[in-house]
Every structure is written in structure tokens, then in C-alpha cells.
Amino acid sequence: MTLRESSLDPKRASFDTVVGAGLAFSHEIKAGQTLRIVDLEGNQAVDTLFYNAQDARERYSAVDTIQRQGNIYLTTGTRLFSNEGQALLTITADTCGRHDTLGGACSAESNQVRYALDKKYMHNCRDSFLLEIQTRRPQLSKRDLAPNINFFMNVPVTPEGGLKFDDGISGPDRYVELRADKDVLVLISNCPQLNNPCNGYNPTRIRVLVW
Amino acid sequence: MTTDVLLEESLRGGQMWSRVLRRGQRLRLTDVEGGACVPALLFNADQSLERYNMPDTLKAQHIARLTQGNALYSDMGRVLCAVVEDTCGWHDTISGFGDAAQALAKYGEGDYQTLRNERIRNSRDNFLVELGKYGLTVRDLSASVNFFVKLRAGEDGALEWVSGNSRAGAFVELESEMNTLLVLTNTPHPLDPADRYAPKPVRLSLFAGSAGARSAACRSACAENERGFSLTESYFL
Fold it and tell me: Which chain A residue has its CA at the smallest distance from B76's CA?
């Protein structure tokens, strides 16, 4: 794992906000701009999707990204490919070292399967995604919700074909930075999951900046 | 068990295929010569917004590949199909499928004008054609199951293509736990190191049956599957 720091100065960011635990966020990023997501308190899973801002039929594709780089983990140098085989963004800095794109987002229904039938009431990422797009992004619907990125989440795969949800390798103030190759819409659910260690059982704030 | 065969079809190299597997029916895919690659998409035929969900399938069962005893989950916490038999042992679901640009770069020109029906085809275009028959579009195209394909991830996450994963005669059999629209394309995987376009013939056999008849081992494989099957049953009350 190679860590790379950024030289960008937060004081000069054109956009700077904090997203509370369990909240959704969406924002347009122009080609050439840089997005930074900061894990303010450590071990926070940030469920993230990207769309072509002009045509949302083109979107981030986990499997295209994995296939085209021949590796399941995302880190500095990874190009995030779309379902059209085009680079949407490139990871330009990363002080965490590894991010997941196999674990997907939690939902009321997957929580029932994974933990217990009576967990359906619990807040989850897909509900956050759906509320955000239903209220703010009318060009999107449930059919546009594809397998996402989990920034700062550690989901190792074993050579035997097993999948593990390990404790995070992130920590306070670690960040990932991405330069947009196209105009993109970023859609984030700051994960509210309380049933597994992806958030250290304590969902916390993140900071989002754009230069 | 041939008494309950409903139909047999061949899936030629390059061909796509789709069918609604009625709840309880079973479909067997046989890799006739070995080395086949059959990307697949699955939808709830009664409500196509509900579809196969790769991450939910993997994390419910703590797996990064599919084989006998695994369930194929939808995004609604239900089991679309159970893998009730598998003599291959590993089916990929994390590395997607190929498109026209990749096929052209790898195999060169191979269009209808020169090759007629032996033309070089790719998974994405085949999927789009087949999805279009049901009013589905590129927005409905998500992570596939790649039958007969094996890619192994190393410690550093690097994927390695495993040759010889599927031998001649290997088969995988699905029991449909819902009314499942299954869409198949018999087209090569972009990470297959073979540089010649040569998709292998696959045989499809459809069997009559009832939901749960062959999937008990899948259901009891883990507490998660027990709950997934129970949610699926509840949907059909």
C-alpha cells in the first residue's frame, strides 16, 4: 500500500462542508476539479457513487474499474471507470491506502438478511441515497443505484474466494482525493450502519472539499 | 434425472439468450467443451427494478465467488436463484464483462460484412439487445455473474486469471426461487489471456420443479440464507 499526500490547501478550496453521520450529500464537480473526502474521526465508511453530470446513464462501475485495473482495491492512481468504459475520476492522493468497492451499500432489506429480520427499521445507506435523489436529483432513480465505492472501508478477499469485513485501516483526518476527468455528480451516503465494524460501531462526520 | 426436462437448447458461442425461469424451475448450464464464459444478469420478472445485487450476494455469504450452496440475492433481500449443483466450483461475479471497444482492440475487426453470423460479438452489446426486448436499458445493466470464469485475488488485490477452471462437461444448476428473468450472453471475458475469439458452446437444460425442492442445503448454509429464503417465501404469500 502506498500513501500519497496532497499539496492542496483547504483554505483555498472553493467548496468546503461537513456531512454528519447518517446523512446524504450530492454535488456537481467539474472536469479538472479535485474532490477531497476527509474521514474526520476515523473508521467511517463513505458510500459513494458517481454519475456523468450531463447524462446520468453513464455512471461509476465497480466491475469495470476492477477489471480494467486488474485489482479489487482502490488507491492512488486508480482510475474510476464508468459503465461506458470511460474514466470518470482518478484518485490523486490517498492517506488511507485502500478502499473497498465490493461491499456495496447497506439497505433495510440487506440488514434483515445479514443481521436479523427485525433490523428493518434501522437507518441505512440506500434509504439515504433514495431520499437524496428523490428530493434533489430527479434525473436519478433506484435503477441508477449500482454497486458503489466504500471509501475508508477494509473488505479483504482471500485467495480461496472468501470475503472478510475487517476493522478499518483508516484513522482521524485520513483523506482521499480525486480529480474529475469529466463533469460528474457525486452522491454520498455517510454510512449509518451500527451492526458491523465498518464504522467502528460509531458513525461519525466527514468533510468534503472541492478545489 | 431426465424425466422432468422441459426443454434443451444450445447456446452457441457469441449468442445471447433470455427466459423467465418460473419459481421452482431449474436451469442447468453445461460447458460442453470446457473453458466457457457465460455472463448473466438476473431480474425479478414481476418487477424488474429488483435485480441481482453483487455486493449483497457477497456480503450476506462472506464470499467473493459463487458455487454450490450459494444464493444469488436481489437488492431487496430476496433469493432470485440458488446454486443447487456445481461441478465447476468457481463462478466469478466481481470482474464484469466486455464491450465492443475491448473486443475490437483484442481480436481486431470481425463484422457482419466479412464474417456473417460468425462475427465477433461482445457481452455488453448482447446484453443491451436482450434487455431491450423487455423494455430494459443500459440503466438496468449492473454487475453480472460470469459462469465458468475464475479470477483469484492476491494479497495485494491483484486479479489473476485461472485457466482450466471449467472442464468439458462441467455444469452449474440454478433453482429459481422467484420468477426470475435470466439474461445470458456467451461471449469471452476481457481478462481471458487467449487472443483468439473462440467462445465455447454451452448447453441449457430446463427442468420442472418446485421452489425449495433442491435448495435446502443452500438455505441452511448460513443464518443469512435462512433469513433470505424466509423473506423470499414471505413475498409470495
Answer: A109
pLDDT for position A2: 78
Measured in degrees and rounded to the nearest 5, phi and psi for residue B166 equal -115, 120
ipTM above 0.95, yes or no: yes
Is B12 near chain A, with CB under 8 Å?
no
Query: Under an 8 A CB cutoff, do A63 and B54 touch?
Result: yes
What is the Cα–Cα distance from B60 to B34, expressed in whole angstroms? 30
Q: Which residues pair with B147 in a beta bridge?
A: B38
Grid cell digits, residue A33: 476539479
Task: Give the type of residue at B88.
Answer: C
Closest chain B residue by Cα to residue A97: B156
3-class DSSP state for residue B100?
helix
Q: What is the edge-to-edge ordering of all strands in the sheet holding B202-207? A: B5-11, B202-207, B26-31, B170-176, B79-86, B71-73
CB contact under 8 A, A102 and B64: yes
Q: What span, in angstroms and rounded, lies between the C-alpha atoms of B21 and B219? A: 19
What is the DSSP code (8-state) at residue A108?
H
The full length of chain B comes to 237
Q: Which residue of B has its CA nearest to A103?
A: B55
Q: A117 and B227: CB-CB below 8 Å?
A: yes
Grid cell at residue A135: 428530493
Q: Do A104 and B55 touch (CB under 8 A)?
A: yes
**Residues of chain A numbered 30-59 and touching chain B (CB < 8 Å):** 57
Share of chain B above pLDDT 70, in %: 99
Q: Which residues of chain A have pLDDT under 50?
A: none
Each residue's pLDDT, cut to its tens digit, for chain B (237 residues) gives 456 899 999 999 999 999 999 999 999 999 999 999 999 999 999 999 999 999 999 999 999 999 999 999 999 999 999 999 999 999 999 999 999 999 999 999 999 999 999 999 999 999 999 999 999 999 999 999 999 999 999 999 999 999 999 999 999 999 999 999 999 999 999 999 999 999 999 999 999 999 999 999 999 999 999 999 999 999 999
The 8-class DSSP code of residue A134 comes to H
Q: Would the CB atoms of B191 and A67 count as touching at under 8 Å?
A: yes
Cell match 435462512: residue?
B226
Contact B157 A159 (CB under 8 A): no
Closest CA to B93 of B163, B162, B142: B142
Cell numbers describing residue A190: 455517510
Q: Does B230 touch chain A (CB under 8 A)?
A: yes
For the entire predicted model, the pTM comes to 0.97
Nearest residue of A to residue B71, measured between CA atoms = A113
Using CA atoms of A124, A60, B232, B23 in order, give the dihedral in degrees to the nearest 10.
170
